[in-house]
Every structure is written in C-alpha cells, then in structure tokens.
Design a protein that fits this description.
Strand content: under 5%
Number of helices: 4
Distance between the termini: 44 Å
Structural class: mainly alpha
Order of helices and strands: HHHH
Radius of gyration: 20 Å
Number of strands: 0
Shape: flat
C-alpha cells in the first residue's frame, strides 16, 4: 500500500485544509437544502408547523430520499470537517500537550454534544 498505491494516488487525496473546506461547504449545503425543503413546505401548507413533521396528507409528499439527502450530506461534511479540524489542532500543538489536546477534542467535539443531545 505505502509503496505502490499511495504514491500513485497521492495527488488525488485532498490535503487537510481542502478537506476542511469541503466539509464546511457540505455542512453549509446541508443547512441550505434543509431550509429550502422547509420553506417549500411552509409556502404550500400555510402553517407554522414544519412541513417535515406533519401527519400524512397534511403537507407535501416528499420522497424519503429527498428528506434523507440533507442528513447524509451533513454527516459527510461533519466527518470531513471534524477529522481535518482534529488534525489541524494536533499539528499545531507542542509535543508535550498532544495528549491533553486529543482529550479536549474528544470532550468538546464528541462528549459534551452527545451528552446534551441525549438529554
């Protein structure tokens, strides 16, 4: 892998800042597509309730794939952005503090959001 595949494909693998940029753009695209879906539901149903949470027959009939697309795009964007962000933090940290920074990335990046999300 290191001597045959990686050198030939190295130019196609995005660098850290490119992965961070792609991840953030995918997250922005996910939020924009969610807003567009919700706005189109509000425009046709004339209610204050989100069109994505209405009972069957009350709102627009979206395909499940159309509703899942913003989530899939956001998940891919979060994966790219969090991985590149962690790599950036560790690249800029002095050697003696790398363990502490990995712990802080896990706590503030995954631990506290999961705790708050489960409450």
């Amino acid at each position: 892998f290191e001597f045959v595949i990686y050198p030939s494909l190295r130019r196609y693998i995005p660098r850290m800042f490119e992965r961070l940029l792609i991840g953030l753009l995918l997250l922005l695209t996910s939020i924009a597509s969610d807003l567009i879906l919700d706005a189109s539901g509000h425009a046709t149903t004339h209610t204050n309730v989100s069109c994505l949470f209405l009972r069957e027959g009350d709102g627009l009939q979206f395909s499940p794939w159309v509703l899942a697309m913003p989530t899939l795009i956001g998940g891919l964007g979060y994966t790219l952005a969090s991985q590149a962000g962690c790599e950036l933090v560790l690249a800029q940290t002095p050697y003696a503090m790398k363990g502490m920074m990995v712990g802080l990335v896990f706590v503030f990046g995954w631990g506290i959001p999961m705790l708050v999300g489960s409450l």
